[in-house]
Amino acid sequence: MLLVLLVCFCLAAPASGAPVATTNAAPVSQDPAQTPVKSDTSANEEFKFGTVDLELLEQVNLLDQRFERDGLVLEDEATNGYLARVGKSLLPRGLNLEHVSWKFRALRDPVPNAFALPNGSVYVTTGLLALMDNESQLAAVLAHELTHVMRRHTYLQNRSNRKKILAVNIINAVGVWNPAGGLAGAAIDIITAVAPFIVTATIFGYSRDLEREADLKGVELMMNAEYPPEEMVKALKLLANDIEGEQIRLFYNDHPALQDRIKYVSAYLGSRSDKITAAMELNREKNAYFTKAELIMQHDIQLAINAARYRTAVYLAQRLVDFHRDSSENVFWLAESYRTLGPRAPQLTDKELTNSAKKDATKKRTRRTPEEEEKDLLATDAGQQNWKANQQKAEELYLAALKLSNPVPAAHRGLGMLYERVGRMGEAATEYEKYLGLAQTAIDHERIQRRMEMLRRPQK
Amino acid sequence: MKFNTRLDCSTIRSAFVAIFVLIIVVTAQQVAHAQYLHPKVVSKQTTIRKIVLLPAKIEVVKDSMKGPEGMAAESDLLGARVNQLVTEVLAAKSVASASGPVAGAEGGDAQQKYTIADIQSRYDALLPKIAKKKSDVKKGRFSLGDEVLNLNVDKTADAIVFVRGHGQRLTKGKTAFTLLVGGMPAYLRMSIGIVDAHSGEVLLYTDPVAVGDPTNPNDTRLRKAIEKSLKKLPPAP
Question: What is the pTM of this model?
């Protein structure tokens, strides 16, 4: 009994470690208007590093290297420089944090996400960059992540997790050695079975209080840097748009529910409305952002297609075409997205976005390959209709892309793949040939060459 | 009479437990070294003479009483060791290893890195589906598609090898705790996938397990596990 009480006490312990000298992770008040957000100087307060923190720091530094080595970091100086400019503009002046060296980088991942490592490395996925409408929204995401570093949230969460895991081990021992069995034993067994899941869940996200603090402090950072803070709410709304009907944890999904966050950030902004002035209207409109992010968006569409996120690809490509209609590259990406969409509808219906439908879709996704999914869909009337409509649209767009100035050679490759799929083999081979003639150093040269040779091989 | 019935019951129960334990032991052994070959490999329509090994992705953690801790540097070293062992085991079957993907396409090194990363993640996306129904490898169900050609590997290579693994090392405290209370011992569970370098079809899948500290520099256990798991792969002529 005493042990169980001890365990309960451990689980309820606040997220603070013994060596912490400051109150960096002060719990945030539930009333958004009353939420105390510390001044910039508080970030410089001393944080005493324990052995556990230094070990974590060492691992995190290796993680940075791993991202780079494995080709996950987008090696584009312009993009990373742009992220650094926006990120650094949010940092309070004179901020000097021990063991923090700020680095801002884009990560090649079509799932919208962003995270900060405690060593000051901030990563934003191409999926998130492609989803944002303007620089202020990007600043909102960065401000949130910067707060996690400035407030040392990772270290605090790590210390907290370690305590929980120790507690689970104790519960495990109590459960195994419990001679009584019966109801008490069964209850402990259930806790033991459930607790690791809860603990694991906390590892993949900060506690709600810490996330809330990051949101509200993020708003402060935005205002200090003269970014319109209401863009944080707009960014959250954009992230709430579930294009794929997925159940995976997207950016902010593992934090307080998005609607709650939108509510409390809006309430907080309302209480600070005196600070939102017209002077904040800087050159951060949509067009400026899209001009800077156009290449990243194109790169992300390819990543989305690779990851079978076809609807996202169509959504993003359509945004690009709406922004810059005369770009052959943008029209090509929209064509490519429609071609790979195959027999799927470009948008999910309300019925498909219910929780049970999403659950069902997730189950199917784990079982079937995208090719098998296509085959199953093609066996239905709706699938056949979608297929025809999407392929027709793709063909029109490929042809349109080729008529624009500076036509992208890959449109020939796309047409070739489309014709090959619908059985127009001669035309497919011709398109492949055109592509090979125009893109002689392309990375997929050999692949397309083989396809062309197969098509031209006399049929037995 | 009553006494006899009780005795019979306990005897039957013991017999059931013994059979159950036996089944577990036998199937565990099979799972550890099960190998699934594509029909093309079985029928020798496809022969693997030369392979290209992509960098292994192995993650090991140190499990202590205070929870698991990352071992990034050790994991990297282990990945290189496992790749080396796979190369040696395949070499014993006269399967040569070609050097990894070569840069040279437009975009230079970054593009090459991206292509490797994309193919690796393509495999990672397929892996759970393979693991869910490994026997379907025998039906030729799984493929990465001809995108594997974008890697531009050595033209004489027949197959590309993907190695994945996860494992744990226990601290002394955790080892004692595990002995007393039970729990997972130190282990390394790997998965090896051999994919056709031209069509992307999964030609072989196996998932060997090596029990014991995976960071131990003695490779004997690890090598044995890999050797056993690739036993069915026909040697190159």
Answer: 0.80
